[in-house]
Amino acid sequence: MKTSDRLKIIISGPVNSGKTTFIGTLSDIDPVTTDVQPSDEVARVKKSTTVAMDYGMVRIGEGVVVDLYGTPGQTRFSFMCDILMEGALGLILLVNNTEEAPVERLRDYLQLFQKHRESVPLCVGVTHMDRAGYGTLAEYRRMVANEGWNSPVFSVDARSEQDANILLTALMGCLDPTLIVHHITEYASRYAELR
Amino acid sequence: MADEMVPLRIAALSMSRAEVHSLGVLLPRRLDRTVEILTSSTESCDLFLVGVDAAQGRSLAQHLSVERPEIPMIQVGVQRPASVRGGYFAHRPLRADELARTIGEALYQNEPEMPLRTRGGRLEREYREYATHDFDRCIAGRLREAVHIARDNRVDLEIKGIGTLLVLQEGRIYSVASPRALCSIDRVTRGRCKRQDPLAIEYRELASAEVCRLMKTTQQGRMYETEYFLWVTAIGCAQGRFPQGYQPDTKVQLTSWPDCTQLPHSMAVVVFCSVFSRGAVRLDTAAAELGVPWPVLADFVNAAHAIGLLRKESRLARQPTSRQNKWRWARDVLSAVARHFGRRAEGSMARQAV
Fold this sequence. Notes:
The complex is a heterodimer. Chain A is α/β, with parallel strands linked by helices. Chain A has a single domain, classed as 3-Layer(aba) Sandwich (Rossmann fold). Chain A contains seven helices and eight strands, in the order βαββββαβαβαβααα. Chain A has helices spanning about 20-25, 80-85, 100-110, 135-145, 160-175, 180-190, 190-195, and strands at about 5-10, 35, 50, 55-60, 65-70, 90-95, 120-125, 155. In chain B, about 40% of the residues lie in helices and about 15% in strands. Chain B has three domains: about 1-110, Response regulator (Rossmann fold), CATH 3.40.50.2300; about 135-230, no CATH class; about 245-354, no CATH class. Chain B is an alpha/beta fold. Chains A and B meet through strand 4, helix 4, strand 8, helix 5 and helix 6 of A and helix 9, helix 12 and helix 13 of B.
């Protein structure tokens, strides 16, 4: 397999936002994780947390592979983001709406990836929107726009294959709309029937 | 816009490799859009370019003009053969200026008022079917008004005259009727202000205790996200018409993406959003380049207008295309990746529907 046929998508976001679950939902292999028992305040919210990275793989066929890398959620490991972003095709940011100050956490991550704004498309997935949380989608959208990104913000269930694939399709659409335009052709041809 | 959307697919037949190569380099610049040169397939192409200096090319041109009359053809040769007559012709050696002009004429068919036609001239027929409706006075427009009142004044409202319908300040709607069912209501009356606006909504503010009581007494109701409710209602009211004020030449831009995962026909919405979020796009250009009939585009425009995510004549600069250029070398791979994720999403949607 040529190295050029491997593409890389980065999944990032704060602790407990569902990055590992999201990779597990998409990956064709059992995700490779570097989870350890947390020794800091993270121990209050979860039993294990990622310290280096998560890895999953999607086989597209004919030798094309999409590598999914999850960054650690704790800020002290944020240097990993820069390492993983090298040559990335796209970036997914996940944020948990039930964690405290999620909109501000999203802002921190947007700023962390600010230097990639012109070169890498971004999609934001807000998890746990079905439960009483702190932010509304409008607030997340405003934050994304204020930080200078023109990116989709969707509510997602990290366990849902449908949501995860829609998010990735939108990411490809942000890269180049012609890549996904065939979906509209199919919809248009069945328009009368669907209505 | 053009460069960001469907490429112009030109089937170059009976032409030398050098000519094909130079077409691939020169035409995108001259036409200011993405051009795909096909040499082996004529499937779903927009234009035939056929070399007619050799007998084989001439017979191919004749065959295509009979078998595929809907696709415009430009014949290319040193001398114009007698068989071309009034058709399109470009002289060899090819000059980019002349060829670009002839391609423009062939695609527009000398109808400057028309945008680029879709395959088979479908848009030409549908252009006449372009219609608008008064969005502000349909039920979706009235609901949007109520949503703004509830949000801006931080109050919960009960809308009267359409069953129990509560517009809640936190961005949800509680309704006994489904959004689709509401679309069949063509008149919403208001008791107090009949003279001013007979179609206006009648609403009253509710205390939170009253909201709970109403929801308890009408247990057959359902809670909806406002965005979803307005989206579905707007499409239902539109009936394939655009909101007034949106003309074929109106440029629109999406200010933010809607919550596509929660909307019906998510994948189609994602495509529209990816196109309209990159910069201001004329509606006719979008319809032609995406190859969709007016009613399909009208649905999206109505829905996005209803939830306030669409802006006419954007003041924002176009997004840089550096991302696209960066990955241009891997276009085939990216197409395969996009198809894979799209198919998976559609597959899970279909499974869920079952």
